């Protein structure tokens, strides 16, 4: 879909080097999302395009195309990644709508959807790298959700996504980041990297939920369960369905996954 085939709308998200806007197809009226970066700074976005164009899963945002065009008349050229739009926003938006936290039934359902995406990505050799509830278009690790090995400068691999999933479950259950008592990024990174601590589990969550979190939040990445293993955990297994929810109803576990390349 070339630039002449769509119109840019309002900005719905910003990342370190890119913005995400709504867009509308001129011919069909279909609404989708456009992630844009200055052409000279678009190497990461072009990498995302190569990855996203090779993926096909109901749990991962769909790729519609890419082009190079001016973001506004007279402006410099941007690289644009055209992709599916999750109309109900991010998990962070949903947490706010529900009064600051989600109930356990909702947490189980969203965790299951996120795991479906992670299992697919990991089976294809792709690591998300930035799983969190706010994601709508950033592609950088977030300190509060970083796994210990990543905070120490180690490899960002599939187990790091599982740690971030555990942190996201805590945020869904509490409405707060996983390290709420740490006030600055450097202190958070030091505690995550070099202490023996793990984030505190929500006091009200069920035993199944606490066990699920204990499988995600192991400081040793080799001890964490894989996404495929976690899909069979009692905390989420009842939420597994043969067919994913209607795309018009998506709240963003997809947009949580939108974050990695999305």
From TrEMBL:
- Reply yes or no: does the keyword Coiled coil apply: no
Task: List the Pfam families hit by this protein, alphabetically.
Answer: Pkinase (PF00069)
Biological processes per GO annotation = signal transduction
The record's keywords, sorted A to Z, are: ATP-binding, Nucleotide-binding
- Outline the extent of the Protein kinase domain: 6-236
- Per UniProt, ATP binds at 35
Can you name the source organism?
Ensete ventricosum (Abyssinian banana)
Top-level lineage group: Eukaryota
Q: What is this protein called?
A: Protein kinase domain-containing protein
- Single GO molecular function: protein kinase activity
Q: Which Gene3D superfamilies match?
A: Transferase(Phosphotransferase) domain 1
InterPro entries, alphabetically?
Kinase-like_dom_sf, Plant_MAPKKK, Prot_kinase_dom, Protein_kinase_ATP_BS
rRNA-binding as a keyword of this entry, yes or no, is no
* PANTHER family xrefs: CCR4-NOT TRANSCRIPTIONAL COMPLEX SUBUNIT CAF120-RELATED, MITOGEN-ACTIVATED PROTEIN KINASE KINASE KINASE 19
């Amino acid at each position: 879909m070339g630039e002449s085939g769509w119109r840019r709308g309002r900005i719905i998200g910003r990342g370190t080097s890119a913005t995400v806007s709504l867009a509308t197809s001129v011919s069909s009226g279909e609404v989708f999302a456009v992630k844009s970066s200055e052409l000279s700074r678009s190497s990461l976005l072009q990498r995302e395009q190569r990855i996203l164009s090779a993926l096909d899963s109901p749990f991962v945002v769909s790729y519609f195309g890419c082009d190079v065009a001016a973001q506004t008349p007279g402006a410099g050229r941007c690289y644009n990644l055209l992709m599916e739009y999750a109309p109900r926003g991010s998990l962070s938006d949903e947490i706010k709508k529900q009064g600051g936290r989600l109930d356990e039934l909702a947490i189980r359902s969203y965790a299951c959807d996120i795991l479906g995406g992670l299992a697919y990505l990991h089976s294809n050799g792709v690591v998300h790298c930035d799983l969190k509830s706010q994601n709508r278009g950033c592609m950088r690790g977030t300190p509060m959700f970083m796994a210990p090995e990543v905070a120490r400068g180690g490899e960002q691999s599939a187990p790091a996504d599982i740690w971030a999933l555990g942190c996201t479950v805590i945020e869904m259950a509490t409405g707060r980041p996983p390290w709420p008592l740490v006030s600055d990024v450097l202190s958070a990174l030091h505690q995550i990297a070099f202490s023996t601590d793990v984030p505190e589990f929500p006091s009200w969550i069920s035993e199944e939920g606490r066990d699920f979190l204990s499988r995600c939040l192991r400081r040793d990445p080799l001890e964490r369960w894989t996404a495929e293993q976690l899909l069979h955990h009692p905390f989420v297994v009842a939420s597994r369905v043969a067919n994913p929810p209607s795309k018009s109803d998506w709240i963003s576990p997809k947009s949580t996954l939108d974050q990695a390349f999305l």
